[in-house]
Write a structure and sequence with these properties.
By secondary structure, the protein is mainly β. The chain contains 1 helix and 15 strands.
Length: 222
């Protein structure tokens, strides 16, 4: 079956395509977002209006909750350093940082995680925070904390009571937002080869939202 279109119709279809593309792009461009600039946080609403949320000049790594009402971020305390990590030289003089949350209105700012160095158990180290990710329901926050020379520890904090739990070693984490495994985690790990050549490589595994291992998904391609 062949479809023949007149030049006039082709022109109209082209215009429709351009309009649809513009609308899709505009919708994506106007979706709510958050950014850090010069150590301050800004919330951009669906209409594209930007509002300054913090003025500390020490806030970075902001992430927006799934319902677009709360921001999690890392706040640095530049005048303080942690000197307690005598078990790991690379952890000495770690900058003191904290994880905070704040409403997108600028209200209800709360510190939810503070730096803590444990000389006896690296799994309990809380330092050099990065890769903040909200759970799908927005009630928990996953984050990485420096723990070993080549790996971080993956932790989760309950945003209602600020209780922190270690889940596993990791160098990356993503929350699956749809499908059969929605709410579960894809965790990147540093895996060491048992072969004659030795070495290490990155692997990806599926974990439940509570940190239970499900299965290995694959490894990073070179």
């Amino acid at each position: 079956m062949h479809i023949h279109l007149s030049a006039h119709r082709i022109k109209n279809y082209k215009q429709l395509f351009v309009l649809c593309a513009f609308l899709v792009f505009s919708a994506a461009a106007q979706a709510s977002s958050v950014k850090a600039k010069n150590g301050n946080l800004y919330f951009i609403n669906d209409a594209g209006k930007s509002s300054q949320i913090t003025k500390q000049m020490s806030d970075t790594q902001p992430v927006l909750s799934p319902d677009k009402t709360k921001i999690a971020f890392v706040r640095a305390l530049p005048k303080r350093e942690i000197q307690e990590a005598d078990n790991e030289p690379w952890m000495q003089a770690t900058a003191d940082v904290e994880i905070w949350t704040i409403d997108t209105t600028g209200a209800d700012a709360q510190r939810v995680v503070a730096t803590h160095i444990d000389n006896d158990n690296n799994e309990k180290n809380l330092a050099q925070f990065n890769t903040l990710v909200f759970s799908l329901d927005g009630k928990q926050l996953y984050f990485l904390s420096k723990a070993w020379v080549a790996s971080y520890g993956l932790h989760v904090v309950n945003l209602a009571n600020h209780q922190v739990h270690y889940l596993t070693d990791a160098n990356g984490v993503r929350v699956i937002n749809r499908g059969r495994y929605a709410g579960n985690l894809i965790v990147e790990k540093r895996t060491y080869s048992t072969g004659a050549e030795g070495g290490a490589y990155a692997t990806f595994s599926l974990f439940t939202s509570q940190g239970a291992y499900v299965k290995r998904l694959g490894k990073r391609q070179k």
